[in-house]
Amino acid sequence: MNKDEILEKSREEYGIVDEREKRDEIRAASVGMWVSFALMVIYAQVKSIVLGQSANDIMGLAFFGASVTFFTRFRFSRDRAHLAGGIIFALGGLLFLGTYILRLNGIDI
Question: What is the pTM for the complete model shown?
Fold first, then answer.
């Protein structure tokens, strides 16, 4: 195979987007997810400390968002660390959601 054949085959597989652009998109999505996660945690702490309200609802959403990111990464990479991260964040989200539901029903933990 010459250079032109290799380039043509690569374009057929990946389209016009090259590997660097795909990697940059993945990094951008990852940074966006972590910044959103950090902002939600900060907001939850402000809600809890300043307003005196439970922040378990927001923390649950933040943890579920992070778990979805890790599970999606696992789907494409099959890296067990991503699976473990997804499970850990999902369990954390369930914990926050469970305590939020208990508080709604008058059970304070």
Answer: 0.68
